[in-house]
Design brief:
Layout (H helix, E strand, L loop, with lengths): L40 E7 L6 H10 L5 H14 L1 E8 H17 L5 E6 L3
Antiparallel strand pairs: 1-2, 1-3
Helix pairs in contact: 1-2
Length: 122
């Protein structure tokens, strides 16, 4: 019987040559005096009315403004008690879009639900 030391050893496979590491491209540093310009923010407000059902208002807040059930109910009750409530602070285009969507949904259901938007304080 032959021992393993008696068998010729197979040559180890050669590793493929490694490519030189590429240095990551450097990004130019932004000057500290240059601040990124953010889109101006607008406050979206809901106004109380005596016609629109509360559950419809909560549905609009949940579907259009992506509010949770408790937050939507809180916003609706704040508007009901004080006449107006803050819904969200959004960039102008998004505020316009969501107010238009909410008005469209309310008008389709024949309710006078009203939202407005105004510039947020800096």
């Amino acid at each position: 019987m032959r021992r393993s030391a008696d068998f010729p050893r197979a040559a180890a496979p050669e590793a493929p040559p490694k490519a030189p590491k590429a240095k990551p491209a450097r990004k130019p540093k932004a000057r500290s005096s240059e601040k990124p310009r953010l889109a101006p923010q607008y406050r979206v407000l809901i106004h109380n009315d005596d016609v629109t059902p509360m559950d419809f208002v909560v549905t609009v807040l949940r579907e259009i403004f992506r509010k949770g059930p408790f937050e939507a109910t809180r916003i609706m009750l704040t508007a009901h008690v004080s006449g107006i409530a803050l819904v969200a602070v959004l960039p102008l285009e998004e505020a316009e879009l969501r107010v238009d969507q909410a008005h469209s949904l309310a008008r389709t259901a024949h309710f006078p639900l009203t939202f407005s938007y105004e510039p947020a304080e800096a």
